[in-house]
Design goal:
The complex is a heterodimer of chains A (428) and B (529). Chain A has ten helices and 19 strands. Chain A has 428 residues and is an alpha/beta fold. In chain B, strands 1, 2, 9, 10, 11, 12, 19, 20 and 21 form a nine-stranded mixed beta sheet that branches. In chain B, strands 5, 6, 7, 13, 14, 15, 16, 17 and 18 form a nine-stranded mixed beta sheet that branches. Classes of the chains: A alpha/beta (428), B alpha+beta (529).
Chain lengths: 428, 529
């Protein structure tokens, strides 16, 4: 079968590009080896949290300077206006997550170790965790949940640098054990979907919350019915409630993946998960097809355009071998941003900047990968997300922002290209 | 008064009286402490950091059969096979009986095999030539081009378990163990060492120890200790690099059948296998950076034993420092150099300094023998005769005389209903294991817990368990936020030391996930200080 666009990779960048294209009636196939980093990350969209080691209050104001001092950063290829547009589109595309926020200010939400973390767009279940205006916070620990430790969080948060005074404390609950003694965060999230479990939580907290306190739960407030669970708890506890993101797997991330893939299917796209993808042949500088290998024989899929959103080293989009050579795994595209030959790839201090972290694909203004001379490699291949060179998302707190905005921009570039082609055709 | 407070008071007393003070908490020092305590001496063991934090905890884990030295150093081979037999009886719980092969790869001269066989036979190392086919059947990943293979009783030994069992035994015989106590100086009076001044590295308090004999078992650091007594002990620190691979690529210890060299041993230990090692002379035993060339060399040598080695996942690298003793002393005729494999220096005879004995050189396989000869000298200096019992009495944990089997932790865990969280999934450490270790170690260092339980040593290198362990440390030990955060960041830095030299392939992928967890999700770089 022939598609208009094949998107390789099912993380936030790939799903965004695919949904955007499907909304414009393109025939879209998303094909990926596995689910993407959505399952690892909280669903909040960090656009820019830190620039030059300073906490960013407004990405909108910081972006121009940041791009100026980081040439080759993915944000150099997307304007602030288009990032703002992408955030807005995101909120509307998955209304069930109730995203709130804008590009001109960062929320400040506690991490699981109680560090205030800036984020531009956050789901409604996390909004009440905003620390910027201070207040009284109580964190609820659940025995049996090894990935959330309310006392450590509360202790650190009480000593964090914040614009307003924050007081913290914690309570520990010992909910009845289900079938598993170690259900993990996803197991707990499923239990919160259950009304009876929530009844128990509400009763256990009765009389233990003080007036004006905002209540922080681990991010396990439901998997299927998150919005309902969160609203139910706020309503019955009569306190504002929010979720604190946990180690992977991430229940909020799974909700985001669920919402985006549901929207994609509604828009008529096809999603194939579980296949390794490799180049399937090119002609006249254009890729004609990709080859997908699942459990059985390889299958060829043809398309007019391709979006490469396979992620960086963490997701297998890039691989470094033991000789220090790096490879892009689908099309074998040239990788930019590598330290010079003979120079170390890593620093000996863990929290230092690591020379290898800028490696990735260099692209042209339309997000098409280019070689070292700046020449586009394939006319119809676009790249988006963590595979792009020049960013250190885990330090900048920019990962989901880059994925969303470049996925959005790659789709826009494909739509624009098609429009140009058809208007040329009309002119003939 | 509650017992805990009593203990605290006892350990902060300003002055300690003992018969024997042992310096160094590696395999030798812990062996000396056990031996001395079992012979009825009041004994204090002092270690500047944690037990087995030095060379002992940083070797490849090979319990030598003696085969490696059969040609080059026959007396060392004899010691190794004797001690190998003894350790299988007294410390089986620390040993996995993997067996060992010496193989002639296409890069080795097959004729060396004859010298090897002759050497093993003359030193009493049990050896059997096995057919190439049989060797390849047992070790399918072995280079198919090997020319000859020999089977010997090499095994894998867990250095931490070994040291801990020796120390527990010493404590059962009323020895006192002071970890994180550094020797600041030795007290010399009337031509005799009469004690030492220690500093508690955690509280900063100084403690003086009055001892009748001081045993210097500081390994590569022995020269620094001996200098406090004005004795010159030339110990050349030799750095050896090792890399743990994420899988047991081999189930048998593999040695190249040639004169011992670099990168020619692979030891399957626990869920990993370790390739070693190099030998680079360095000046400071505390400076053990690993270079890219060393890593590349090790991987290339690995390819010769196991083709495809470079495609396998490297997990962690480290460097240990061998104590290479070279006697240059004018009066070396008085040195009781038992064999070339270790050095016992009776400083009374050697330097005219009484009450002071140095035991250095050697290897973990012969630690017990080294301890025995050191304590024999202690007896001599004190003018008493007390026989050594360490070759017969099993170590705590080894009473059942059963060797460790891979999967023992899972085996112990599996029949029980799962009633609690697993904190470290890679190494199967449950919450109660971890909390018991935190209580027992009374430590604020996650690395100390790691050495006891192996948390953070599996494929994820702590990506998931270290957040949990840190938070439990905070709660269980009632630590303030700053101490807790320091413990977390120190562990991450310590872990990184062993990761960055070998980051490629899947381990880089894992590390990027861990970076994302610690820096992206938790944002540890902005923890309050």
């Amino acid at each position: 079968m022939t598609y208009d666009v094949i998107v390789v990779g099912a993380g936030l960048a790939g799903l965004t590009a695919a949904l955007r294209l499907a909304e414009h009636d393109r025939r879209v196939l998303v094909i990926a080896k596995g689910v993407g980093a959505t399952h690892l990350a909280p669903s909040a969209i960090d656009v820019l949290g830190y620039a030059e080691d300073k906490r960013v209050e407004s990405p909108q104001s910081a972006l121009a300077g940041f791009v100026g001092s980081h040439p080759g950063h993915p944000y150099a290829y997307v304007s602030a206006e288009s990032i703002a547009e992408a955030l807005d589109w995101m909120s509307k595309s998955v209304p069930e997550l109730g995203y709130q926020g804008r590009l001109d200010e960062n929320w400040l939400l506690p991490t699981a170790v109680g560090v205030p973390k800036p984020s531009a767009l956050v789901p409604e279940t996390m909004v009440a965790g905003d620390l910027r205006r201070g207040g009284r916070f109580v964190f609820v620990g659940l025995s049996g949940l090894k990935d959330f430790h309310a006392s450590y969080l509360a202790d650190n948060l009480a000593h964090a640098e914040l614009p307003a005074r924050v007081s913290t404390r914690f309570v520990e609950l010992d909910p009845p054990h289900g079938r598993s003694a170690d259900p993990g965060s996803v197991g707990f999230a499923r239990r919160f979907d259950d009304q009876q479990f929530r009844d128990w939580i509400v009763q256990a907290l009765a009389g233990r919350l003080e007036a004006d306190e905002t209540v922080g739960f681990p991010a396990v407030l439901g998997l299927e019915k998150a919005g309902e669970v969160w609203r139910d708890l706020e309503h019955r506890l009569e306190h504002r409630v929010f979720e604190v993101p946990l180690l992977p797997p991430s229940a909020p991330g799974m909700r985001l993946y669920g919402a985006l893939t549901a929207a994609l299917r509604r828009a008529g796209a096809r999603i194939v998960i579980g296949d390794s993808v490799s180049a399937g042949g090119s002609e006249d500088g254009r890729v004609a097809a990709v080859s997908a290998q699942g459990a059985s024989r390889p299958v060829m899929y043809r398309a007019s355009s391709f979006v490469l959103a396979t992620g960086g080293f963490a997701s297998g989009g890039l691989v470094l071998d033991s000789h220090g050579k790096v490879r892009e795994t689908v099309f074998g595209l040239p990788v930019a941003g590598m330290p010079e030959a003979g120079k170390p790839l890593f620093s000996s201090r863990y929290l230092d900047a690591q020379p290898l972290s800028h490696a990735g694909l260099a692209v042209d203004a339309h997000l098409r990968p280019v070689d070292k001379d700046g020449q586009v490699v394939h006319e119809n291949v676009y790249a988006a997300g963590a595979i792009l060179a020049g960013a250190v998302p885990w330090r900048e707190h920019s990962g989901n922002g880059i994925s969303l905005s470049t996925g959005y921009a790659a789709a826009a570039a494909i739509l624009k290209q098609a429009a140009a082609v058809s208007s040329t055709a009309a002119g003939d | 008064m509650p017992p805990r407070t009593l203990k605290l008071l006892a350990s902060t007393a300003r002055s300690i009286q003992t018969e024997v003070l042992v310096i160094g908490g590696g395999s030798t020092g812990s062996g000396v402490a056990r031996d001395a305590a079992m012979r009825g001496f009041s004994t204090v063991l002092v270690e500047r950091r944690d037990l087995a934090d030095g060379t002992t905890g940083r070797f490849h884990g090979l319990l030598h059969s003696g085969g490696r030295y059969a040609v080059k150093d026959p007396s060392a081979a004899i010691e190794c096979i004797n001690e190998n037999r003894i350790l299988r009886k007294i410390a089986p719980d620390c040993i996995e009986d993997t067996g060992g092969f010496f193989v002639a790869t296409p890069w080795d001269d097959p004729a060396f095999g004859d010298r090897f066989l002759a050497g093993c036979r003359s030193t009493g190392v049990p050896v059997q030539e096995v057919s190439v086919d049989k060797a390849l059947r047992r070790e399918p990943r072995l280079h198919p081009g090997i020319k000859r293979a020999f089977s010997v009783p090499d095994a894998a030994i867990d250095p931490w378990k070994l040291v801990w069992s020796n120390v527990r035994s010493a404590q059962e015989h009323r020895a006192r163990v002071l970890t994180y106590h550094r020797v600041l100086s030795l007290d010399v009076a009337g031509g005799k060492v009469v004690g030492a001044v220690l500093r508690d590295e955690r509280s900063g308090e100084e403690i003086s120890v009055h001892a009748e004999v001081v045993v210097n078992a500081a390994g590569a650091w022995a020269g620094q200790i001996a200098a406090f007594a004005g004795c010159e002990v030339p110990v050349l620190p030799g750095k050896g690099v090792m890399i743990a691979m994420n899988h047991r690529l081999v189930q048998t210890v593999l040695n190249r059948c040639k004169m011992p060299g670099d990168g020619d041993i692979i030891v399957p230990i626990r869920t990993t296998c370790v390739i070693g090692t190099t030998d680079v002379h360095i000046t400071d035993p505390d400076q053990t950076e690993i270079t890219k060339n060393e890593v590349d060399f090790m991987l290339d040598e690995g390819e010769k034993l196991v083709p495809g080695f470079r495609q396998a996942r490297a997990l962690h690298a480290w460097a240990g420092v061998r104590p290479l003793f070279q006697e240059t002393h004018a009066k070396d005729i008085d040195t009781r150099d038992v064999t070339r494999s270790h050095a016992l220096l009776d400083h009374e005879k050697r330097d005219g300094v009484g009450g002071f004995v140095t035991i250095t050189g050697g290897k973990t396989t012969t630690y017990r023998l080294m301890a025995e000869v050191a304590v024999d000298t202690v007896c001599e200096q004190l003018g008493v005769q007390r026989p050594c019992r360490t070759a017969k009495e099993p170590l705590p944990g080894s009473e059942r005389r059963a060797t460790y089997q891979l999967g023992a932790r899972l085996g112990a865990r599996e029949p029980l209903p799962q009633d609690e969280e697993i904190i470290c999934e890679c190494e199967l450490v449950t919450r109660s294991h971890l909390e018991a270790a935190i209580a027992r170690r009374e430590t604020d260092s996650i690395d100390d817990i790691r050495r006891l339980l192996r948390v953070g040593m599996g494929p994820c290198q702590g990506g998931f368990c270290i957040y949990r362990a840190t938070a439990l440390l905070h709660g269980d030990r009632h630590l303030d936020y700053a101490t807790t955060n320091r413990a977390l960041l120190e562990f991450l830095q310590e872990r990184w030391k062993g990761l960055h030299p070998i980051l490629f392939g899947d381990q880089l992928r894992q590390t990027r996930l861990d970076d994302w967890i610690f820096q992206g999700l938790l944002d540890v770089q902005h923890l309050p200080k």
